[in-house]
From TrEMBL, chains A, B:
Annotated organism of origin: Paenarthrobacter nitroguajacolicus
HTH lacI-type domain span: 1-53
Top-level taxon of the source organism: Bacteria
GO MF terms held by the record: DNA-binding transcription factor activity; transcription cis-regulatory region binding
Keywords: DNA-binding, Transcription, Transcription regulation
PROSITE patterns: HTH_LACI_1 (PS00356), HTH_LACI_2 (PS50932)
Residues forming coiled coils: none
Record Pfam families: LacI (PF00356), Peripla_BP_3 (PF13377)
The protein's name in its UniProt record: LacI family DNA-binding transcriptional regulator
Gene3D superfamilies documented for this protein: 3.40.50.2300, lambda repressor-like DNA-binding domains
Length: 327, 327
DNA sequence: GATGCAATTGTTAGCGCTCACAACTTTGAT
DNA sequence: ATCAAAGTTGTGAGCGCTAACAATTGCATC
């Protein structure tokens, strides 16, 4: 920086002012400094800057199951928005979700001196752990509705489930089962709520609830059972991967989809349009969610307030696994 | 740090020595300092440390298509290994791959002062761009075989393709087509090479090569054509997603898999075991690849030499889309 | 007890930057 | 011409840490 100042014939402070876009610099000086900067290929030292400003220009992203469709796309959105805003993005992926691993990862971020943290750990217990931390560093929790301490951002999963189940109701189905995710996942719980509410609103009893684990393997296993007992005429499956397993089980068992049983999935992964048959499902824009998380976090860094929670609305994509109840 | 020193009754430098595990500190002093640290909940300031050591303890991960199966799992491995080694992981995902976007992202990392970079951008042009950078910061390129400047780490995709095609040859197939990835991807090119070599080694002509784009949609489209002309008895598809599309096309066209045509995929995503029918494919351990990248990078940070390139060996997973040629 | 040497601890400087403040220069109204 | 106010630039200090060196201590040896 001293070198740049010398070349431009000004003081180091003026160079700093140009770098930080301070208003009171005459345009000729600014120009001279900028020329010196490009001439010398100067880049300012982030460490020195953070040391004095107490800002690292870094946002930490903490997540579990980061290779899954939802989390990885959320990360994509977060990363893009953060970089556009001139922030660095540091990631920590959790192998295993326990209060300890979460605290470890948060400590890791604190050591790094991140300016804010986005958490994508979809288990309810997470938020209790986070309560202690949020006073030290601004925090956005994906999946939480937020409160006065914690900023929340979420896809309205209940709404998505409502869309799915109402679609089945519109087609005349009454015995509508639900193959859910693990009930200790926030997303799974919200989808169960939506399914249950849609049925009770229609005056029906929500009886057939099967807890799954998100995997295709589990969908296959449970699908085989359902094919055998035929207790439902339609099945709302909590994600597309399980739906894939169900589809295969039904195929093997000679249950025709959608003639015999209708299926609705959740997520709308790109592959779902090429299942046999193409899957009716609920689409969610995770990238948008990620981007808006950063928006919320940056707002908060300026204002200090948690801000209004974000809700992204899902939409139903009708394909070929759903049909009017035949008999 | 001054506070810790005061509580422990030593100088700040002694605290620093304890923190950095310097040998010449008496065990009583060390203990006293450590107690003071926990008592005060002291964490050392990374920015100040980097400023003087000129090390940021951060590794940058640059990738394109980061939400895809391969890249996202590589990131997982990289992240885990880096964090275990006490490094922070900064990510930059490329929306679009051009020399400019790559240079931008690298500049972003340089601004941050990363100690090393892992690049997962599977396009050949990438490496030319990186040539200029590698003198400034250690760099590991996934997909590159490496040279004296650049450390390389790669899954032996050609080997994987050989396995796939030889499996088909063993089953008696002779007309073996290949639905490849975009030819400007390194991975796609290596798989094409493997397919071609396996055939020529067997004294066969590698004729039916179709260039795809990795998507299920493309697999479906091309699958429909193949179903119509029946020019091959077996198809080696360059990834599982395209294979899914092919499977659906064949199903629609009434082509039975594997009786009429055998199919081998590539990647072994968890879902592939639940395709209809379950997909024979080639498994690659991306997480291991990521972990070993960090190993290579850390070695290099110490020794300065590019190190021996890493090769991860894929393996064939036989399921139900391949069968002995019937007639 | 004096001497030398190693082990341990303390002192000082400086990494590259921004902030607070001081000093100087311009502008426009009197 | 004179002055105040605003615009522009420079100076010094210090963020929290580590490296290099200086000083002190302990301990065996003569």
């Amino acid at each position: 920086m001293e070198d740049v100042a010398r070349v431009a014939g000004v003081s180091h402070q003026t160079v700093s002012r140009v770098l930080n876009n301070h208003p009171n610099v005459s345009s000729k000086t600014r120009e001279r400094v900028e020329q010196a900067i490009t001439e010398l290929g100067y880049r300012r030292n982030t460490a020195a800057r953070s040391l004095v400003t107490r800002r690292s220009q870094t946002i930490g992203v903490l997540g579990s199951e980061m290779a899954q469709y939802g989390p990885s796309h959320t990360l994509l959105g977060v990363q893009q928005a953060a970089r556009d805003a001139g922030y660095f993005v540091s990631v920590a992926a959790l192998r295993e979700v326990t209060p300890e691993t979460i605290k470890d990862a948060i400590a890791h971020f604190m050591d790094q001196g991140v300016d804010g943290i986005v958490v994508t750990v979809p288990h309810p217990g997470t938020f209790d752990v986070l309560k202690d931390i949020t006073s030290q560093v601004p925090l956005v929790a994906v999946g939480s509705i937020g409160d006065e301490h914690l900023s929340g951002a979420t896809v309205d999963q209940r709404q998505g489930a409502l869309l799915a189940v109402r679609h089945l109701l519109d087609l005349g189905h009454q015995r509508i089962g639900h193959l859910s995710g693990p009930t200790d996942w926030i997303d799974a719980a919200a989808r169960i709520d939506g399914w249950r509410d849609a049925l009770t609103d229609a005056g029906l009893e929500p009886t057939t609830l099967i807890e799954g684990d998100w995997s295709a393997e589990c969908g296959y296993r449970e699908g085989l059972k359902i094919a055998a007992d035929r207790s439902v005429s339609a099945l709302f499956v909590a994600n597309d991967q399980m739906a894939l397993g169900v589809l295969r089980a039904f195929h093997e068992a000679g249950v025709h989809v959608p003639k015999d049983i209708s299926i609705v999935g959740f997520d709308d992964q790109p592959e779902s349009a090429y299942f046999i048959p193409p899957l009716t499902t609920v689409a969610q824009d995770f990238e948008e969610l990620g981007q808006r998380c950063i928006g919320l976090l940056l707002d908060r860094l300026e204002s200090g307030a948690p801000g209004t929670p974000i809700t992204v609305t899902p939409r139903l994509v009708v394909r070929e696994t759903t049909a009017r109840l035949s008999n």
